[in-house]
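Sat 14:20. Reprocessing the chain from the morning session after the first attempt stalled halfway. Input below, unchanged.
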Amino acid sequence: MNFIKKRIVVLTGAGMSAESGLKTFRDANGLWEGYDVMQVASPQGFATNPKLVFEFYNQRRRQLLQVEPNQGHKALVTLEKYFEVSIITQNVDNLHEQAGSSKVLHLHGELLKVRSTVNENYVLDWRDDLNLGDLDNEENQLRPHIVWFGEMVPLLEKAIEITQTADILIIVGTSMQVYPAASLVNYTKSDTPIYFIDPKPNVSQNDFQNLTILSTTASIGVPQLVKQLI
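Finished this time. Tokens:
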């Protein structure tokens, strides 16, 4: 008789990668590593000053190539031996993949990819700096493969489909304030156990049925929870 593995869906945000040395998205002033996010993460910002946008993401890309997955990323890989695991991440880094996770959906794009400014389906793997003059096969400028503020989130429907299948939902390192990603929790079945891991959780037991809060970092909380689940 085939044993059907339970399905675990994991939603991860900036706090998942912070302990690997990657800066979280923005600080309390709305600045991202000293930049106004609308200057470096919006279509308007790109149209106004593409060189600034390229340099911003070039810095992020160089930084990513120097860091490694932390214990939180690695613990999620262990879960795959016992469960069907799907990760939906707001992060644009590839640390889940580096650690060995096999099913990762990037809601907000990927730092190590670029795409055409004209044909959004023309996507290339990219580990070097991206500059003005780097073109697609039709001589159109390439841009970071990132979902900017004001742009559609093309993989949202897929993320909703995945979340609806969850037997267990784990949320790690995200404030659940960034929409539309924050709305995903509403697509789980009402009796689905939810585990929320964050050092400064902004949810309470009253927010969801079957909610367990672990007020700690990803590298401590995820291995703890994985041990508990298996």
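The longest strand covers residues 109-116.
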